[in-house]
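Input for the complex:
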Amino acid sequence: MERAPLKNIFASYQAYDACFDEVFAEDGTVRPHYHKLYELFSGYTLRDFQELNERTKLAFFNQGITFAVYSDEAGGSERIFPFDLFPRIIPASEWSMIEKGIIQRNYALNLFLHDLYHDKKILKDKVVPADLVFSSGNYNKYMIGHNPVGGIYNHISGTDLIRHRDGKYYILEDNIRCPSGVSYILANREAMKSGLSDLFQESQVALVKPYPVELLATIQSVAPENVDQPTAVVLTPGIFNSAYYEHSFLAQRMGIELVEGRDLLVDNDFVYMKTIYGRQKVDIIYRRVDDEFLDPMVYRPDSMLGVPGLMTAYRAGNVTLVNAPGTGVADDKAVYTYVPQIIRYYLGEEAILHNVPTWHCEKPDDLKYVLGNMAELVLKPVDESGGYGIVIGPQATRAQLDEYRTRILANPRKYIAQPVMSLSTHATYIEDEVMFEPRHIDLRIFSLLGKDRHYVLKGGLSRVALRRGSLIVNSSQGGGSKDTWVLEK
Amino acid sequence: MRYSVHYLARNHYEHPVQEAVLDFLVTPTETPGQRLLGRQSDPRFPGKAYSYTNIFGFEVIRFRAEQPFADCEFSFSFQVESDVQTEALPLAFFPLEEELAIMDSPEFSIDHILFLRPTPSSRLDESQNFFPYQRNISVFDYLLSLRDHIYEAIRFEPGITHVHTTAEEVLAIRRGVCQDFVHLFLAIARQSGIPCRYVSGYLDQGMQFQGAAQMHAWAEAMIPGRGWVGFDPTNKLLADHHFIKVSHGCDYQDCAPLRGIIYMGGGQRTEYEVVVKPENSLVNV
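Predicted:
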C-alpha cells in the first residue's frame, strides 16, 4: 500500500454525475492542461505525497495565516485556512476570456454607480427598475452628486464565478464593498512554492506576487488632486475582525500604515494620523470598515470603528476612500440580474461573462416560461435577502409549486427564476480517506480599477467545499481553498 | 419683515470631556424670499470652528475640541429678512390632469426619490390608510386638508415624544410636538406619491404660534409644475414670512440643530434657548 504509485488512487476517482470535473474529462482522461501535474503526482509514492502535504501545511502555519470564526464553540478562535495541495489550473485561453469579461463588468458597474449618484439615466430609461435600486437600502444619500477622484467607485472587486455542467463560467456574485480573501491567494502560492517548486519553473504559471504593488499603484492613482506624495493607510475595524490578518498583510506588503479609527482624526475637513511625531496628513484610505461604521457623525452614531467627520472630509475631496461608500447598491442580488443590461446600456457591448440566466416574471414571455417550467427552476422574490421566500423547484412539492404560482401571478414584478446551477468539481486530497476525491469548487477573482488603469490578478481563490457533496465553500462553514494557477500560454 | 434670531446651547458635563466633535445646523439659509443680513457668534469652547456644506446644501458649523472641558456654551445671532408670501400661491397651479400626469412620470419620482421614500421616523404602515390622496382634487388642496386633518387629530403637547418617535407612534398616541406633526405629514404625503421634505427653522415669537419657543419644524411639498411649498401642520398655516428656514432633509435626523460625538463618562446637562424678535415689532402689534 505504502509503495503504491499515486496513479492507483486516481484510478478509483469517481466524478459526480452531471457536474463538470476540472481535472478529468467525461471519458476519464486527464484534461491536457493538467498533464504535467498529473505525471508529477503519479510519480510520487503515497508517503512522498503525505510528506509534501505535511510540509505545505507547515509552511502555512509558519506564515501565521489564520482567520477568526465568530460562531465557533471556542468563541472567536483563530483557525488555519484549510488548504489543498492539488492546484486548480486555468489554461491561458480560458483566462483571457475571463479577464476581458471582468474588466468589462468593472467598467460597466462603475458607470452604473456614477449614474445612480448623478443623473439616474438608466432608471429614467427604465432599463433597471427604479424601485429595485431604491428599495434595497444600499443607496447612499451621502454619495449623491459627489465626484470621486478619477470617477472611480469600485476600485477593488472580488468577483465570484462558478463553472456549470455545460463547461461554461458563470458569474455568481459581484463583491464591490470590501471584498476579502486576496491574502489567501498570495499565501497559498507561497506554500505551494515550498512544496512544488520544480513544477512552477516548467509550467509557466502567472505570478500573483505583483498584487500588492498593483493595489498600491491603483489607490495612489486616485489620490486627491494636487497631492504630490500621497500618504495611504489601511483602515481596519481591529484585531477582532475576521479578516484582520489580511488587513495587516496587505498594509505590510504595500509598505503603508495599518490604522484603526481611533488613530485618525479630522480637522478642518482634512484627515490626520496620530503618530509619535505628531500629526501626519492622510490622503488615501483603503478602508476595510463597512459604510455604516465609517463616520459616526452621519451613519451609526454608536460606531467606535470610524472617524467623526470623515465623510465631510471625503465630500470636500481632501481624502479618497477606497472603495467609495455606496457601492453596495450595485452588487445587490436584485441588481445582479440586470448586469447584462447594464453592460449593454453603458458600453454598447454584450456581456463577455455570462450571468446565471434569469427570467423576470414581469416580462410576459419570461412569465410564460417560468410557469411552464417551475419544477426545474429556482424561484426567488427580487427584493428579499438572506434566502427568504426562495423555492427550489426540484425539491418542492406539487402543493408548494401551486401556491407559488398563485403568488407569482398576483405580483409578477416581484419574482425572478433561475436554473439550478451546479458547481464544477476538482480532485482534492482528502486526508481522512488517504485519496483524491471530487469536491465542489468556485472561483473568486480580484481585480482593480484606478484612474486610467486596470488590473486583474492572474490567479484566484478557488474555494473548496470539503465535505463530500457539499456546495458550501465558505471558509466559515468548513470550506478550504486551492492555489489557482493561470497558465501564461 | 426683519428678524433678529438668537440661538444658544449650554452644556455641562459631570466629568471632563476628552474628545468632542459638535455640528450646529442653525444658520438661516438664503432662499428667493429670505436673506441673511448679518451674523455674530460667541462660542465658549476650547477648540476651533469651521463650516461645511451638508449634502442638502446647508451650512453646518463644526467645532472640534482641542483640550478637555466640562462646560461649553455656543451662542449665535443672525439678522434675517423675509418677504415670503403665500397669498398668490393657488393661482399658479396646473390643471388637475396635468398635475397627475407630471406626478406619474418616472422622471418626477426618480428626481425626487429621497423625498418619496419612508425613513425610520416617517414610516407608516400602509394599512393605516390615514387620509390618502384620492386624486380628485389638486395636490395643493389635498395637502391643505391633510395639514388641517393632522392639526385636528394630534394635540400639541411637549414632553411626550422624543427625537426618535415615529409617525406610526404619533398616530397611535395622538400627541406630540412640531417634528411629530411633520413626520406624520411626510409619511402620508409620501405614501400618496407626493415628494415631501422636513424643514427646520425659526418661528416668529410675536404671533402666539405653537412651537415658537424652540427651533420649529414644518414640511415642504413638491407641487407638480409649481415647486416646493411650505405647510405647517402644527399651526395650520402655510409657511410665509413668519417662518425662517434653516435647512431641509428627509426627516429630523437630517436637520437636527445640534449633533455631536462626545467621548465621556457620566452625565450631562443641556440647555437651549431660542429668541426670535421682529426688528420692527410695531408691524405685529
